[in-house]
Amino acid sequence: MSKIFDQVGASITNHGKNFVALYKIHIDAAQRTEKIHNGRNVRLVGEGCFEDRFAHSLLCALPLKKGMSEADRVIKFTGGYIRFVNEKAAEEKAQADPDEDTDGDTASRFTAFLLRYLLQAFQAKDKNIRYRTLQTVAEMVSHLGEIDEDLYEELRAALLDRMERDREASVRLQATISVAKLCGAEDPSVVEAGESGLTKLQETLVVDSAQEVRRAALLNLPMDGKTLPLILDRTRDTDDMNRKLVYNAVLEANVTQGNTEIIGLTHPRTLTIAQRELIVENGLGDRVPAVRAAAASLIARWVETENSGVLALLKLFDLANGAVAADALLSVFTTNETIFDNLVFGDDYWVNLTPESAFLARVFVDHCKATKDEVRLEAALPVVTALAFRIQDAYNKLLEDNDITAEERLLGSIKRNDKEFVISELLKLAVNLDYTDEIGRRKMFQLVRDMLSRDALPQSLVASSLDVLRELTANERDLIRVVVEIIQELREDDEDGEEPAPDADAETNFGDTPATVKPPRLSLFQRPREELSDAQRKRTDHIDLKCLSMCAAMLERVNSTFEENLTLDGILGELILPSVRRDDVPLFREKAILCLGLCCLISTKIILSSIDYFMKNIPKEQGNIKIVLIMALFDLLMVHDAALSRTQGGSESRQKATQFLTELLDDNVDKKVLALLCMGISKLALNGMITDQNAVRKLVEMYVSPKTASNQELRQALTFSLPVYSYSSLQNQLTIVRIFIPVLLKASEVRKELDEDTEMVSSSRLSLMFLDWTDPFKLANEDKKVLCQLLNKLHIPDNIDDDDIKRFKLLISNLRERHPVRDATSKTAFNKFEVMIAKKFEKQLEGFDSEEYRKLESLQELFAFLDEIIPDDDDDEVIDIDVKRKGRKR
């Protein structure tokens, strides 16, 4: 047996023949027995000797460290031999008489002995022994054959204990593999709730801190409807390899069942829309190229399983939120160029468009535009006039739905949404058209203008229509004028609701868009609301809401100032401000406040009054209106910082507003509001607009507070912004230093009042965070680092004038004395450069003395410059401490 173990430890190729050789020894030993108790019983002397010798040989491999191949091969041989003897026992049992009563065979007795022997080492103090023991069990556990139920329960309990409690990740990994293999043999009716191996495996996948343990759970967890959500959560795992394996080793492997065409658990038709979008969004949006490639491979596999190609794939996504579907489609274009090359958009393609075909055409055009593939782009895009007629035809069919009954409208809502989506995609496509054809341009302009002039136009199409209109107008001023005219037309509608007929002779030029002259009429919007009927109020509200949406979309697309477009004054006074004052319909106020905030971004005249209005109304409002008000105030402060400094009273208003926003942190419990406030205040602090250390202190307190533990948006924002704020300047780090003690004391007080079940950041972890934020080596000083690294790339001539080299040496010496570099990379580069100069010009710099050089008249100007440099403070000096390292014992 010793010879066999020597051979299997040296190479894995001889394991097969040594299985046979060891089995012969095992069978021969099993035949050696001894009768006891006057022949009534038999002692298995030979088996006992074989088991002891086998255990002794295996014991030699258990203390060996992880990574030693000899031990790995011995353990692999042990697991292989267990499989071999149990397969032999199964063959003999199949050939034996089924009525014959046996007390167990040699294989089961040997397996039980080895398991009990290994179970003794599960609690060993040596981590190597625990690792090798669990590794051996992991090799054996799939081939245990028939074992005693008590032994099985003992093994299962010991494995679960090691998987949960062992401090070594390598041991937990082997235990996880073993538990995963035992899951199939569990009886749900016997196992207690929460104690099943499958449940523990799911917990390990989610909470274990070691990436390799989570990886083992991921690859060995049985996939079903309950475990699939946990596996999909691993698409956001912190480890790159785990995220990659989710896609190529788990999801792609289960698209079909084996090599058959039967759909599997991760087939796109089996998954829900939310699951499909989660897979695509997390995979293609990953920061690691290997993960993105694995996700692209999975999507390509999905396309292969769909006989209808990409159109069938698009039906599996929610195209209304088209970003995910577009990413999936672009991935298919990249990974399978054959599909991209074979797409043809002939005249027949545009006749009966579906949401999927319209979406495909639009994404194809966007892709050609992004890759500058002008040949395919020209072949795919229809003529401007033809596309205008297609849009007009689709819009007319959409208007026909307005004449149907309410019941029919309810049944046909899905079809109506599809029609709106097709028009939206065609409008997005129209943005990329070539409008050098004047006839086509006029047709498209008149069509889009007429669509916007109708109050029946769905709000979902307003933004897309304005994008096309922006391409058709000469400049922003012309765009604003056209939109203002449309809004005035809608609000000057007559009492009976009859829309004015469009001017058939109106022509449009890039530089001159004619205004429509209308006879004066008594408008519904000019009469008091009390005089209007219920139907008239509903009509005016509907039109005003559409006008506000159009106004907001227009303001989002312009950058010119309010003062350059005087036509906006009428919209502000007649539409926006009256809607802001309305209290009966919250949606009106929300839209109007959004428009007012956008007006403030391009106007400097209404800054101070708007700040006062926002501050006055934020405490009163709730929900979306409050969020819009806060966002508007933050945007105003960020955009008009310089203007506020120049305006009389502007600095006081800015300080008052920032203090007001900081105080709101104490008064709000809404998660979205708190997250918005923290993000906005951190941006203002990072830009130097908030210098009050109390504001920074409140941000840190919010970050570590147990009340915000479930507010992931807030935590994620501050996880990024607080380190960036700290590393951006020395002054910011000093602010962090000053707030450390108050934050630590406040956290201690909060921790004392917490319930036992509530967790909070410990004092040690909080201190480590502050220590990291105040690390002087992490200050953003990339410019100096880059310049130091460039020094060694300079070409220094061999012959330099004595005065020039002395000047050079003086600059180097003063830099070292007055502004020494701090980080290791810059210091190494600078020292290397200084040594090179000293060696290369050793003779010219011999006897270098800065005091002697100071007396030279030619260097007076240089010394005057150097004397004006303020040296770094002594407190900022970094002292290098050389730690003596112990020599390695031999």
TrEMBL record:
Enumerate the spans annotated as Nuclear condensin complex subunit 3 C-terminal domain.
Answer: 546-785
- Where does this protein reside within or beyond the cell? Chromosome
Q: What is this protein called?
A: Nuclear condensin complex subunit 3 C-terminal domain-containing protein
Q: Does the UniProt entry include the keyword Cell cycle? A: yes
Record's compositionally biased regions (Acidic residues): 491-506
Sequence similarity: Belongs to the CND3 (condensin subunit 3) family.
Q: What is its main location?
A: nucleus
Q: Which organism is it from?
A: Laccaria amethystina LaAM-08-1
